[in-house]
């Protein structure tokens, strides 16, 4: 698995570091090279402007990869164990630390970007979409409630900005690094109200905490929304018993207390067995032929469908020779939803709790949080 990640990482970096665009008219090769590792790239599809989050910097580039603006974000004196703001008298272990970009999201409705780094416990900032040098919001004195991203460079963080009752919120999924706060999924408000700050959880219970005592158990791969649901995909490394799984979690977007949170395995397998590691996942509307073939599996066949497809890239390591095998699995989102409902029902009616992973305590997962079917 290490080699898988390394290979993919190197591959990604190679592509990104030499991010090239060939202009069709004059065949001129344009490129932008960052001095440090690239972490995130996102494009504003209305303006063509490219936003890059790299170690210790942010860039705003034109479609032709010319730098419009750049911002230095690190290194800064920090220590993963210390609570910001860093006071060198209280945090004697603080040393110049690189700032990995953990989240880089465009909030078009607000003309801003949300940027989170690994420094200072994963605190986030809001920057002007037109001018990323312009930091519109950044507060490092709020403590725990403002710790959003993972502060570990090796623990991935995923985020989704969406509107909820006409307000904008940020759904975040992150693994639990050795010095993280244990929260793996949370909803953060992007507005100030009722004494709650920007980036604070919009209710005290809008979070899922890691049920595992050991750190680095989950690696988040993707977050997306469809209709009223928000979905997360993550890999989970379990120690007792030893097992690698890929899970899909779903919750209702407007569920302030996370009662609707449910997770199940996202399995991809062939004749040789299961692929146990997901690298990327993407949800889209199927083309005509795929939609037709998906419809044929439906009962009754003649109902119109707005079913989406989930495309997920998996890999596994051959235990015998260490070779790598990868696969692209295509899932119907409607079938995933049906399976979630079935598992939830089984949990209540047959007391089959095997599809829960102890998140809601081992004894009676169905009853916790006062959930009623
Ligand atoms: C799980 O993945 C890790 C690497 O991430 C690998 O070392 C380990 O052998 C895998 N465990 C199983 C049971 O496949
Ligand atoms: C940009 O992307 C958004 C979200 O995917 C979409 O709604 C919008 O139509 C796109 N705009 C353009 C100009 O393609
Ligand atoms: C965002 O900025 C653009 C360009 O300055 C402007 O045309 C647009 O109205 C702004 N949108 C919002 C929601 O403020
Ligand atoms: C961008 O923002 C920075 C920081 O607020 C400011 O100094 C600069 O003048 C702005 N640039 C433009 C073109 O507005
Ligand atoms: C992250 O991974 C790299 C490469 O495996 C390792 O050198 C580094 O110490 C790790 N960082 C942390 C904070 O665990
Ligand atoms: C319990 O649920 C799991 C996962 O959905 C399934 O594999 C297993 O067969 C079920 N067991 C029983 C007794 O229904």
User: What global shape is seen?
Assistant: globular
Rg for CA atoms: 22 Å
Oligomer: single chain
Content-based structural category: mainly beta
Ligand names = 2-acetamido-2-deoxy-beta-D-glucopyranose
What's the mean pLDDT score?
82
The succession of helices and strands, N to C, reads HEEEEEEEEEEEEEEEEEEEEEEEHEEH
**Helical region count?**
3
State the share of residues found in helices, binned by percent. 10-25%
Unreliable runs, pLDDT <50, ≥5 residues? Answer: 1-23, 357-364, 366-373
Q: How are the strands of the largest sheet arranged?
A: 3-4-5-6
Number of strands: 25
Can you offer a commentary on this structure?
The protein is mainly beta and 373 residues long. 11% of the residues lie in helices and 39% in strands. It has 3 helices and 25 strands. Strands 3-4-5-6 form a 4-stranded antiparallel β-sheet, covered by helices on one side. Strands 9-10-11-12 form a 4-stranded antiparallel β-sheet, with no helix packed on it. Strand 24 (309-317) and strand 25 (324-332) form a beta hairpin. It is globular and about 60 Å long. Bound molecules: 2-acetamido-2-deoxy-beta-D-glucopyranose (6 copies). The site of one 2-acetamido-2-deoxy-beta-D-glucopyranose (NAG) has 3 residues, from loops.
